[in-house]
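Good morning C.,

I know you're traveling, so I'll keep this short. The sequence:
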Amino acid sequence: MVNEALDGDFDLAAFAHVAFYDPERAWIEMRLRALRPMRVHLRGAGIERSFEAGDEIRTEISCKYNARIARGPVAGTGLDVVDWLTDDEELFAVAVMERDGTGPVIAG
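The tokens, ready to paste straight into the viewer:
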């Protein structure tokens, strides 16, 4: 997508997808790791960048919440967490919320 949007020449096959969980921050990071040295151009943004094998680009942070922490971001929004559905290891969950008593809203 970045190649099309910014007239780039990223060789997508020259990167590996890397994901890991950071328990201190309670989030998952996604990164792209260069598999070989290369020079990349994003002509639409006027950017050139060199990569060595092993260099990484962080592409996403996905924050993870437990049932207690999930209530904080919805405070004052009119939503109430009414159920917390999770797997056996409690690695993934879906919050079931109600909006001012009008019925369930699902957030996963």
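Safe travels,
E.
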